[in-house]
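Worked Example 4.2. Consider the chain below.
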Amino acid sequence: MADILTPVLGESVAEAAIAKWTKKPGDAVKKDEILVELETDKVSLEVAAPADGILTEILAGEGDTVVPGTVLGRIGGAGEVAAAAPAPKAEAPAAPAAASSALLDVKTPVMGESVAEGAISRWAKKAGEVVKKDEILVEIETDKVAVEVASPADGVLAEIVAADGATVTPGQVIARISTDGSVVAVAPAAAPAPAAAPVAAQKASDHLSPAVNRIVSETGLNTAGIAGTGKDGRITKGDALAALSNPAPTAIAPVATPAAPIAPREVGPREERVKMTRLRQTIARRLKESQSTAAQLTTFNEVDMTTVMSLRNTYKDAFEKRHGVKLGFMSFFAKAVVAALKDIPAVNAEIDGTDIIYKNHYDLGIAVGTEKGLVVPVLRDVDTLSLAGIEKGIAGLGKQARDGTLSLDQLQGGTFTITNGGIYGSLMSTPILNMPQVGILGMHNIVQRPMVVNGQIVARPMMYLALSYDHRIVDGKEAVTFLVRIKEGLEDPQRFILDV
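Applying the procedure from the previous section yields the following structure tokens:
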């Protein structure tokens, strides 16, 4: 008998809510197979099976609040639970394909820490087509990264269980492969329309998860009129965020009957309707959440890039030959940002309820544009890296972002973000905060402009800098000083060497 325990939930996270069980009592489970998803006020966590066996008991049901160390359920051997396992229903015969020993299941893989589900993006093969082992069959898209699933063996794609657009979870069977060609291909079943949440179940939404509680405490959201879409009508984090983005009338007063959904408008002959990807939906939600939560303000300055460009032109060949990576501008900016963060610690902080968390580590998010949208991988401990180490780290993260191979851990935990719109020709912009961070630096295009130097008008390569910051904890004086420190560091890079 093995206990399924609530794991440590993270720094300053004391409790979680059971969001979803992927197995029922009596189901067979494999070691490391995802069993349950926990929702905290910061992230979602997945709990895996500690051993092979049978899920004998679920002790904490969906919606229950648990703390680290709580026993969620138990796993036993098949012999221990033969009598306890639920009897099979007569009206639900096994699928014909499962009876064939020549069929192999294709399952959704584990898609990363705290990633509970994904959507079938596209099938590379059709039912009935021949496939080779390790050949890519399908791409699954999550709200962070895209995951490719390969064929486990040579054969014929006998059945597609999850069609394009279907939502899938780790361990779910999405297709079957016939290894001897004896099975007739089966077309994917149409995905059932989601059932509407009953209005009568709204009273159950009084029990709020930690994530929803945090939104309520920070925004004063009135949940009385929100129709929950979770189990038994409970309000989910997504319901709360949707209410914030559309506050009238549900966020301010109880409503007996939810408003009828607005029908999508008709598409004209010269228009095309395309469903937003999960990544784009997440980007949209997070940006709207950022605007709704933080008191955002942007301040500007400009920097003379003459010295940095001269250093780069002088040493770029020797630098690349010695370190195997090109010398760019981003490493200089990263060094200048770290120096400024040390001088103005409020910009490297985070708001947690009514507390401020000052961070004594410098993990920079570097915004990267990809074909599927913007991602912000994190370069850790930048204060300990050399210019070469920074360039290598950024180059590696950029390649992974474009290849879609970033892990969730690489996308979380940044303390400050840098975004470079100048590579696309942007002259000036107001970047939006990457919550819960309270600062983001926008770099822009380098343009030759006339400047007065020692009483003479000369052409200098100038760049506008923009700092967007959360005015709740960063004052205007601190924001302006922060940009001045970056300007000083870039116009006089010797400061990095002398640490002044």
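The chain has four domains: 1-82, 97-184, 201-258+277-293, 295-498. Residues 306-323 form the longest helix (18 residues). Compare this with Example 4.1 before moving on.
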